[in-house]
Amino acid sequence: MTELPGQPALTIRSRTTPDQLDPVISESINGVAAYMSEVGISRAGPPFTISSDPDGEGMIEVSIGWPTAEQLPGRGRVESVVLPEGRVAWAVYRGSYSGLGGAYRALYEWSVENEHEVAGDPRELYYTDPDEVPDPTDYVTGIIWPIH
Question: What distance in Å separates the CA atoms of residue 36 and residue 43, rounded to the nearest whole number?
Fold first, then answer.
């Protein structure tokens, strides 16, 4: 558990199905990165996603982007946001994305066992790039979950 400050970021929001999430993540990470490169903005950390649970239609809301050192203007689909400050449960998972469900369960169970209430949608941080790390067992992903 740790306290995080607010974090300026640039994101693209989408509504998609869980099955289509991987290509949406890739497209959005690359789209925000292209905008940042075009206007000369530096990244202030790894790319991330924030996803909701599926709604009654099986759709999820997802924000995907990059943290920045300061709040900057967006353009088109790229939005300027500040990720909320607050207390979070934080875990780092090493392995294929297909195993992330177990890491989420463990982090949720830790929160319950330590009498913390989940207080929002979790954020995934992608410390490794699948284009640069060919073996999925070497992927490193952070999970940040807001708690009370």
Answer: 8
CA distance from start to end of the chain: 11
Q: Where are the domains of the chain?
A: 2-146
Alpha helices (H) along the chain: 21-39, 100-113
Q: Which residues contact 65 (CB under 8 A, 6 or more apart)?
A: 9, 10, 11, 12, 28, 29, 32, 47, 48, 78, 81
pLDDT confidence of residue 1: 75
Residue 44 predicted with pLDDT over 80: yes
pTM for the whole thing?
Answer: 0.91
**Could you write out the DSSP letters of every residue in 31-55?**
HHHHHHHHHTPPP-S--EEEEPPP-
Q: How far apart are CA 139 and CA 57, in angstroms?
A: 31
Q: Which of 143, 26, 47 is nearest to 89 (CA)?
A: 143
- The whole-angstrom separation of Cα 147 and Cα 144 is 9
Domain topology for 2-146: Multidrug-efflux Transporter 1 Regulator Bmrr; Chain A (3.20.80)
